[in-house]
Design goal:
The complex is a heterodimer of chains A (406) and B (255). Chain A is of the alpha+beta class. Helices cover 56% and strands 17% of the residues of chain A. Chain A has 13 helices and ten strands. In chain A, strands 2-3-8-5-7-6 form a six-stranded mixed barrel. The two termini of chain A are 27 Å apart. In chain B, 44% of the residues are buried. In chain B, the strands form two sheets. Chain B has a six-stranded mixed β-sheet. Chain B has helices at residues 48-55, 78-87, 104-113, 120-133, 149-161, 179-196, 207-210, 236-254; strands at 6-17, 20-32, 37-41, 63-68, 71-72, 89-92, 167-171, 199-203, 215-220, 223-229. In chain B, a hairpin with a 2-residue loop joins strand 9 and strand 10. Chain B is an alpha/beta fold. Chain B is built from eight helices and ten strands. In chain B, helix 3 packs parallel to helix 5, helix 5 runs parallel beside helix 6 (179-196) and helix 6 runs antiparallel to helix 8. Classes of the chains: A alpha+beta (406), B alpha/beta (255). The A-B interface holds A 1-2, 5, 9, 12, 16, 312-313, 315-324, 326, 399-400, 403 and B 53, 56, 58-59, 78-79, 82-83, 85-87, 91, 93, 95, 97, 99-102, 110-111, 113-115, 117, 159, 163.
Amino acid sequence: MSIAMTFIVALKALRRNAMRTALTALGMIIGVAAVIVMVAIGNGARISIETQIKSAGSNIVMVNAGSGPFGPVRQGQGNTTTLTPEDAEAIRREVPGIRYMSPGVNTRAQLVAESGNWGTQIQGAGQALAELRAWPMQFGAFFTEQDVTRASKVVVLGSVVRDQLFGAGADPTGAVVRIKNQPFKVLGVLTTKGQGANGQDQDDTVIAPYTTVQKKLLGQTHLQNITISAADGVPLDTVTQGITDLLTVRHKIAPGEDNDFLVRTLEEIATVLTSTTTTMTYLLAGIAAVSLLVGGIGIMNIMLVSVTERTREIGLRLSVGARDLDVLRQFLVEAIVLSLAGGAVGIGLGFGAASAVSRFAGWPAVVSPDAVAMSFAFAAAIGIFFGFYPARKAAALDPIEALRFE
Amino acid sequence: MSTPVISVADLTKTYAVGEVEVPALRGVTLEVRAGEFLALTGPSGSGKSTFMHLLGCLDTPTGGGYLLNGDDVSTFSKRDLARVRNRDIGFVFQGFNLLSRTSAMENVELPMLYAGRIPAAERRARAKAALESVGLGARLDHHPNQMSGGQQQRVAIARALVNNPVLLLADEPTGNLDSRTSVEVMDIFQRLNRERGLTIVLVTHEQEIAEHATRIVAFRDGRVRADQQVAYRRDAVVELEHVNAQADADALMTA
């Protein structure tokens, strides 16, 4: 029998049991749709994380003081004193493609106001930090270049610190807080930024000019880090390379010697997060694939029932000249048609469900062509795999016994 | 003489049931010439059905030879046997074995689907002609469940004829039919035998049905016990006239 004819015969056989065919295909439909929706949700999560990271500044390069060559003792990162404000200034002047630069020194201290006190992180920064991190003010203004040059005792509060010291939503601009017994004037409050990429609360912080932190709080002249943002369209690699080259020369690091600084980009963090969500996507797809497998077993079950039920039909076909190969092909094609039809409907349903999820749950769901192709191929493979056993059983029937079968 | 349609020599068949070997045929030698209408009779277990299956190439003999139309089919492969069943042999069964929810036309087209590439138009024309030849020209699109037993058996006969076989094998074809319908079916067999010279082998346990044939071969215990020409052959046409006359008389009586 020709392949085309086999298909027609299979379609007729499936139509003869329309309800059963529909229910069997439903297993396949749900399986394929589940794979597509799960992968779509996983992709959506990845893309939303990527956009979040972009908004946090994917164009940001961090230079951290590294572990220095103090003889045989290798201290932890940030313990060298070789990163200086002069380095920061040199980077801003000499490395091309830099938009904003902010030197950084951090410390922790207790803030005391009239109404309470709160221990938090004090970030010493340049006046460019607000623009660099795209962080607008809720009240007041950020400190100026003049404040940095004069090492003025001024601070800008994160919203959590404001809430703790002055009450939620208050505007403490102009108030005075004491840090290490020195009065600092509050210039303003930053808007709430939420949790950072590493999970820390970005709003539980106080920002002061780095010169102030160096001189008034720490008594040091070196920096812990420098935050740099690249100009639009400038590849981060070039900026990173430029900074590395410049600092290598300025710190007189010989070839083969370890750098006493560390240049990193948020892109690296993004990569880690992306690979995490990719793993999650695989996990979801794996769970969905199980339902596809269950659908396939459903097909095998129904095909086995069908073979038993149609034993006399098989006997008849053999007696009018069907070869066992013809019978094998007939049942195999039925199983494949069943699973592919289920797969096709499942893809449609998957698209629908994915767009419903993204509309109602506000979660982006992106159907990937890969997932569609893969689940369709998987459906076909399942049809062949789970259809083969029943088909072979049918083909191996003895014509006489099949004809006598009640 | 032309080649006999069937020529079997010392045909044996033994089934292995567990450890025990059960002989079903113990050496059958028989020749059937073209145009003969043979009835195989015998009690159940006599081997007539086994012999029928061997003649139909549904099974292979344990020993002996079988020439179908001069071809030694006892040496054929499974694939070649399928071809022989398709082209040279037509089967009619007791239970009709029609595909349910499938029209008479499609049922009759079935053997042609396995006969290599026959264009759809030719398939339809041949199926239509076969159904017309058994008097079902008006029921081409009827499904088996819309037809009487006699009509279903006639569809099955049309299916058996559609590939123009040299041999028609009928296994208790009237077993599920009432006596009047049985005579109608025998009428078709007799006409096919008479008008087309079709060779027919019919298995039955009813003496009356067997007497429609030209020759009766009786089986017992796996051997041929008797083989004789029918002296007083029944003619289905005459019987039908008789039955109809009787029916008319009954109608008059009750009127």
